[in-house]
Amino acid sequence: MTATAPAAAGACDACLRRSLLVAVVAGGIEVARRQRRPLRDVLALDEDDLLAAVGGRKADELRERLDRSSLVELRRAVELAELDAVCRHDPGYPSQLLDDRSAPAVLYVRAVGGAARDRLEAAVGAAHREPPPAVAIVGTRKASDDGLAVARALARGLGAAGITVVSGMALGVDSAAHEGALDAGGTTVAVLAGGADVPYPRSKQRLWGRIATTGLVVSEMPPGRRPFPWNFLARNRVIAGLAAATIVVEAAERSGSLVTAELAVELGRDVGAVPGSVLDWRSRGTNALLRDGASVVRDARDALDLVLGVDGAMVALERATGAATRPPADLEPRLAWLLRALDDGRDTVTAIAADPAQAGDVRAGLMELELLGLVERVAGGRVRRVSPVLGEVAVRAEARA
Fold it and tell me: For the residues 353-379, what does the mean pLDDT come to?
């Protein structure tokens, strides 16, 4: 028996049945979404009302299917998928999610190496533990290069400062945010629309593995489930619920990211947005949020001010600044050596290379560091470290000056 079995067994029968109920009626919930029925209202219904609301003439058939479902088999599936199941009655369940009347009955959690419950508590808190500050970073899947750079820089700064970064592992901004937090050695939580054991999108399988190794992958859906469209909207309420603040980097006028921001407001959480060009469709949603009162977020300093306040941000900035000089633990020695050379003030290929023969290797190594988001090319052929505190926004502005 694996280490995850006791935790899975600890989720109560009532909550596991509720989780199965949502899975059984998933198709009906999708119909309700298409009919523009408020999703949170639907998910907050009790069992009888939910079956009646989305089951229609098939309500009795769906109930029979639910009654035939085996909780023993579900627990076994959780174990085989190497997941943990944390229910609303578990003291390890994130207390801030309970501010939402439609909160998931069960969170299925993947954390490589076991101790998923402990890692969940450390990342986002629990009923018996004050939640540490966590920030959601979300945005469009079709992000611009600058949007991706901003998302990485924000997450890198927050991660270096000890702030958990929450997002949805979607293409674009979400994945960039997870990558930035991981690059800083920080904690990141990916909330998936389908089962936590199913990487989605499939192209992000490697990122899914990295997140599960040092952070957490969570979902309210049982293992093995592929998502319906409504699951993505449902996922957004979990992202907003886990975080003290939600920051939108780029978003169209109508997008799931704006839904996440709206849910955060409804839960009494802070919302920030990165300003953008009025000519860019990716900035219409974020600029609209700013018009409506969201906080301006230009870099990690602004994000820290938003979630910690000025005094708390100053302490976190000191921690992040120290982390900025440490290369990632898994960085190849030759690349770590290049970072140390940059820290010593040697900021050109000529200054770093011992002789012309070494220049090619130096250029190739600096390009690898740039792709990793650890360095940035600036004016005059110089290269500089990307600060997780200042972020790449300021660096890019300087480069264009």
Answer: 86
Beta carbons within 10 angstroms of residue 265's beta carbon: 17
Residue 274 to residue 285: CA distance in whole angstroms: 10
The residue-averaged pLDDT of 192-207 equals 96
Calculate the dihedral angle through the C-alpha atoms of 324, 325, 330, 331, rounding to the nearest 10 degrees: 110
* DSSP states along 185-225: T--EEEEPSS-TTS-SSGGGHHHHHHHHHHSEEEESSPTTP
Closest CA to 234 of 219, 213, 216, 249: 219
Q: Given pLDDT bands bounded at 50, 70 and 90, which one contains residue 326? A: low
Which residues fall within 8 angstroms of residue 30, CB to CB, at 6 or more apart?
228, 229, 230
Beta bridge partners of 385: 375
Contact 84, 118 (CB under 8 A): no
**202-230: average pLDDT:** 96
Please report where in the chains the tokens 């003291």 appear, as a residue.
Answer: 91
Round to whole Å and give the CA distance between 122 and 237. Answer: 20
Q: What is the pLDDT of residues 49-61, one digit of tens each?
A: 999 999 989 999 9
